[in-house]
Design a protein that fits this description.
alpha+beta, 2 domains, two-stranded antiparallel sheet, 220 residues, elongated, 55% helix
């Protein structure tokens, strides 16, 4: 009986216990404090951020990702002849040349990781709105995965930048970035902003409270 009673005991969050966490050092300060007593950083006083910025940045990233796959990523000029290639077209060419490892890395960084990040961010936002059931621990793990894979999303842009800087042999061979490189960089930046717009405190508040915060960051 004691074990069943202990298992039913609900653990209070810091906010419910009357504390607010510092986002710089993590120290729990009493609600109403404006400055962290440990590091002196300004404490959040306007409640939760809400999910509207997350959805806005995510949709902007999706819009930018479409032309990034349709428009040319690279323009290669060999003895005056210019050839343009999209992301998928470049992967196919690498496979035809036998560079399977490089093709896999480009496909992973330019296609699989961005799509996985879109799905992960959208699914996390949906769980916080209470449309699907997911434990707090699983939501936090998903949030950490989104933060981790975000740093690898710019590999394709880095490859284009390196090739553009190194392969410039005047009329013989020249490689220049296509317009898709800018779209892809914007898409990655927007998804990074979407992930950073998440207020991790909403994860611990639970889906029943995440939908109650409006654009101003206060309860509606």
């Amino acid at each position: 009986m004691e074990n069943s009673g202990a298992s039913q005991h609900r653990i209070l969050t810091a906010r419910e216990a009357g504390y607010v966490g510092c986002r710089m050092c993590g120290r729990a300060n009493p609600v109403g404090a404006h400055v962290c007593t440990r590091c002196g950083s300004k404490l959040p006083t306007n409640g939760r951020a809400g999910l509207q910025p997350v959805w806005a940045w995510l949709i902007a990233g999706l819009i930018a990702y479409i032309p990034a796959n349709l428009w040319p990523m690279l323009r290669t000029s060999v003895f005056g002849r210019t050839q343009e290639s999209t992301i998928i077209g470049g992967v196919v060419e690498l496979v035809e040349y036998g560079s399977y490892g490089v093709a896999f890395i480009v496909f992973l960084a330019s296609v699989m990781i961005p799509i996985a990040k879109f799905i992960a961010i959208a699914y996390l936002a949906i769980t916080l709105e209470g449309r699907t059931r997911l434990s707090t621990h699983d939501r936090m793990k998903l949030y950490e995965v989104v933060e981790f894979i975000g740093r690898w999303s710019m590999i394709d842009v880095f490859v284009v930048a390196i090739l553009t800087a190194l392969v410039q042999l005047d009329f013989a061979v020249a490689i220049n970035p296509g317009i898709a490189a800018a779209s892809f960089a914007l898409s990655v930046a927007f998804t990074m902003l979407a992930a950073q717009s998440f207020d991790p405190r909403l994860i611990w508040d639970g889906p029943q409270k995440a939908g109650h915060y409006g654009k101003s960051g206060t309860k509606s």
